[in-house]
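Researcher: Last one for today. Full complex below.
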Amino acid sequence: MSSTVSIVHTEDLSEEGLRNATFDAIDKSGFKLPNGIDSAMLKVNLRYYWDSSTGETTDPRIVSAIIDYIRHHNGDGIDIVVAEADASAMRTKYAFRMLGYDKLAQRKRVKLLNLCECEKVETELVVNRRKFSLPVAEPMLNSDLLINVPKLRTHRLTNVSCCLKNMFGAIAVPRKIVYHSHLNEVIVGINKLIKPNLAVIDGIIALGKNPVKMGLVLASEDQLAADVVAAKIMGYNARRIKHFTLAEREGVGRMKDFEIVGAINPESAKLFPHENYFVYNLLWDIKLALLGLYIKITNDTRPPVLDR
Amino acid sequence: MIGLGHMGLLHLRNARFIEDIRVVAAADKSKKALNEAKGYGVKNLFEDYRELLEVTELDAVFIALPNFLHEKSIIDAAEKGLHIFVEKPLARNTSECENIKRAVQRNNVKLAIGHNYRYFDHVQKLKTEFHKGTIGDVEIANLEHFVNGPFAHPLEPVPVHDWWLNPDLSGGGVLLDQGYHLIDLFRWFFPEPEILYARLGYRYSLDLEDSAIVMLKSKRTSTIGIISVGWFQKMVFPQFNFRINLHGTARFLSTDHFAPKNLYLHAARKALKNIVAKIVGKKISPLAYTYYYPSYFKELQNFSQRINSGDDMFDLATVDDGFETIRIVEDSYSFADETRS
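Model: Here's the assembly. Have a good evening.
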């Protein structure tokens, strides 16, 4: 496995510009497409029904470029699948349609796959002395080539959401909220079970407090190394991201001794003013607790939208 | 109470604060929802609303069902001689509206529709100011509302219901969902509108529109209304991107001028007021802490008063309001289709 993380910046946000940036990023990462593969799966990062301009979800144009890259090097004979799993509040069938993936699939003659609708393999794991089991879609385990295509963004629970966190979304059950109590362990667990061959990070529009126009594409075979660079771009100290350090301990990837090809703009961190998510979550809990107390005292109506 | 989804539950909870309303029966397919109704003291619980209509104690029904069930359930209730409060929209199209209107007239029952935007505090204040004439003649009115629509994310995440995205079942997209409210408001301020222009957007490639712009002109006042709605905006509670801007010959006025600047401060203030009211044994103002939600309480309260007093519906939306609003929605769809073709 190459220990290189490539960073490519583009000002040209046209389809052609993104295609060139993606090709460039993959080439510079040192990744070599294996010969003789029959199938490839691209795990995208869809979140709810928010499109890529919000910084929440993978831009289908990056996915389109990766498909072109595979075909350019290995020909048209490869069976390519774009995959995502349902989430607590997201149905993949609508997300694929609404976020431009149906059109992409038609245009590029690739298949779309809801990982929750596949045959599953349930595997028991122990991470950080916590024991749990995770269901994984069989096609994900059987694909000759797996490419992780996450979005570059911050996250309320994990601070950074990129390569490792995107694989959490591959767990083949919709209600992944049940894993939130031991989220770091589960993120690392799923990355021990499924090891993508390559990560291509969509940092075209990233997400901080608001969407941030970055024009970046990153690529690496090492998911953790790519996440460390992503964290640095967003101004986070990678050593303070729990699922990173846990992943390193569990041998998922490396947090040091890797090469970066391309430059990290020293000003980029300023574009991601850090919200203190501990305080943010605490404030939400306080607001809800106050609401509960108020309703207990007054017997006032609670709007169903605030039901738990 | 027919239908105990988000809106039905909200009405059920609000009904507790209205002296003249006693909810004696509820119908819903969900056992969980029926259990909640039971918790509020509702005795007669049904999975099929037609059984509910046989309960002899009933004076009126509240219908909060998906759009495709409005016509049938309203007619069934009217045939039983029951007054009706139905969630918006009245129906999916004018043909259903006609059937509803005939049933309501034939059975001499009253029907009110949940046009709750009329009861927003800032809308009412804007209307009062407008009627005083302080902004002169209104030449142009901008009404806009951008939300997640059916993709709204409640605290407990749930996926969007399939019927929302099926045009046969829902009757339409954002124009019927949010546009309906704004068209009704424009009619309420500036009567007898006719359509000048309509354009629909399909950013999300659904079978129904996720954005719409409609331009109306009031025959009575010549005011032009520009209605803009969208389901495309990421939004988290309590954000609410809705406003009316009235551009008059003397000055302009906006609902933003009357809305609280900080919804959390507003919530704290109103909550404290209610706690004090509770302590001194006075009535609380239900949902005042949410700013937008008291509108649902007020429309219910108004409906109950009208039913009990036998008065006209006044500012409650009637079957004619619903019918006329649906006619404009339908005309907008036709206009947009023609322009597209």
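Chain A has a mean pLDDT of 95. Residues 277-298 of chain A form the longest helix (22 residues).
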